[in-house]
Amino acid sequence: MQPHPLTTFLVNLTGIVYFAAWSYSFYPQLILNFKRKTTHGLSPDFVWVNPLGFLALTLWNWGAYYSPVARKQYQDRHNGHLPQVSASDLAFSLHALIISTITLAQVFWYGYFRQLLRRQNSTAQSIDGPSRDETLPLISDSAGNSVALDETGSGTWRKLATSHSPIRPSPVAQLFLGGLVISSFVYAIFVWAGKAQFLDWLYFVGNIKVVISAVKYIPQVVLNHRMRAVNGFAIGVIFCDMIGSIFSFSQLVISSVFVDHDPSGIIANPAKLGLAGLSFTFDIIFIVQKYWLYRTKMEDEERE
Question: For the segment 164-211, what is each residue's pLDDT rounded down to a tens digit?
Fold first, then answer.
């Protein structure tokens, strides 16, 4: 049965809106980093897990959309229905992977290479004047004063869970990233050995994105709390993120229920469903931090 033209229009419209909102949400952080010429205040844990998460999302979307093997396996499990993956999902995941990788490159440029060039060029330093050393401890209060960590009790855990380098993730984040990468390769071996289907591996990779979405914002939430400010994190991304979450979820529901007439398609796309729900939840947390808990004047770079 052909879907109603109105539902098709709504699916396309929600896809365009969510792609535009979520894609735009990456750029305020890029621009903020460029204008400030620093990534101080931006959690390196957040920056490192983001590309891995969007790589996982890209593999799930493109695999479920283009792989005849995965699509046949999905149809066998869902009474002939196809995966609820749209063209906007393909475009967004690939675009997000590219932009998040560029943001990671900014962390390296401003946190290491740019400072290295400044140290090697004493003449430029004398002209430009003293600049902030990006190798200083990452944790500081809103006035820029370093926050000391105690060496016992909870302080030991904080040292493991918090990065003190502007370019390296914390030890906990490194273990987390390594575990996800290794587990995906181990699961791929099971697929190669015939112990699991390719669709199962795609689901596993898609769930990696859900897990990353559940934890990737936590370092930034903690960093904002310890700095008592949200100066280094571009809050403008949050409002775009909320719009993208709402319209992404709306597209999934409309496409599954009213176009494909398969409500199970909503939960059969855990990556898209989880990303929308978790993003919306953390958006609320960041808004509360910015405009209620840690109300501070925005930095001059953000106002200009």
Answer: 566 788 898 899 999 999 999 999 999 999 999 999 999 999 999 999
Supply the pLDDT for residue 53: 94
Residue 90 has pLDDT above 80, yes or no: yes
Residue carrying the six token digits 């430029």: 124
* Average of per-residue pLDDT across 128-133: 48
DSSP code of 144?
Answer: S
Cα 175-63-204 angle, rounded to 5 deg: 35
pLDDT exceeds 70 at position 256: yes
User: Has residue 270 been placed in a domain?
Assistant: yes
Structural domain total, the chain: 1
| Among 165, 178, 24, CA closest to 108 | 165
3-state secondary structure (DSSP) of residue 140? strand
Query: Among positive and negative, which fits the CA dihedral 141, 145, 149, 150?
Result: negative
Please give the single-letter amino acid code of residue 7. T
Cβ atoms of residues 104 and 50 within 8 Å: yes
The tokens describing 125, both together, are 């330093």
Residue 140 within a domain = no
pLDDT of residue 130 exceeding 70 = no
> What is the domain range of residue 89?
5-122+168-302
Q: Is residue 138 part of a domain?
A: no
Q: Are 286 and 238 in contact (CB under 8 A)?
A: yes
7 contacts: CB under 8 Å, gap ≥ 6: 254, 258, 259
Q: Count the residues in the chain.
A: 304
Q: How confident is the model at residue 142 (pLDDT cuts 50, 70, 90)?
A: very low
- Does some domain include residue 147? no
